[in-house]
Amino acid sequence: MDKFEQNLGMALDAEDKDFLDNLENGRGLFEQLGATLHGPMRFWSYIVWFFTLVFAALAFYSGWQAFFSVEVKYTVLWVAVCLGSAQAVGLLKMWMFDRMNMLSMLAELKRIELRVAQLNDKQN
User: Fold this and answer.
1) What is the distance between the alpha carbons of residues 14 and 69, in angstroms, rounded to a whole number?
2) What Cα–Cα distance (Å) separates residue 116 from each residue in 3, 26, 63, 83, 84?
3) What is the pLDDT of residue 20?
4) What is the pLDDT of residues 61-104, one digit of tens each?
5) Gap between the Cα atoms of 80 and 68, Å rounded
6) Residue 115 — very low, low, confident or very high, per pLDDT cuts 50/70/90?
7) Three-state SS across 70-109?
8) Are 9 and 117 in contact (CB under 8 A)?
9) In terms of residue numbers, what domain contains 40?
């Protein structure tokens, strides 16, 4: 176990410690959303943001069209498009919030990793 703790202490570099110091202040919703736009998954986060905006605009447009359509079949069609788009927005937002939750969990794991390394330094 002693070798494991030594390796853990050496694995934490200055970047990890700076990352954890930044987390001590606590991050708000918009800072957490901004954090999803960095790192290896940033491409997918940008895609999700883009399609969320597209589906939201489509939901508003189709809702507007359903409200002012004259024939029943067009009203039903526009309502179906509106509901499908709203569902897509909800699912995309759920992906984004799951991503935020995962980043939060990774931050907590890094914090625990740092505490274990600090305990190892105090014991030696």
Assistant:
1) 61
2) 13, 21, 54, 49, 48
3) 61
4) 999 999 999 999 999 999 999 999 999 999 999 999 999 888 88
5) 15
6) confident
7) CCHHHHHHHHHHHHHHHHHHHHHHHHHHHHHHHHHHHHHH
8) yes
9) 2-123
User: What amino acid is encoded at 48 in this protein?
Assistant: V
**Rama region for 17: left / alpha / beta (φ>0; ψ in -120 to 50; rest):** alpha
Spell out the long-range contacts of 42-50 with Cβ–Cβ below 8 A and sequence spacing 24 or more: 45/96, 45/99, 48/92, 48/95, 48/96, 49/96
How many domains, in total, are found in the chain? 1
Q: Which residue has the tokens 């999700």?
A: 48
Token pair, residue 103, equals 């980043």
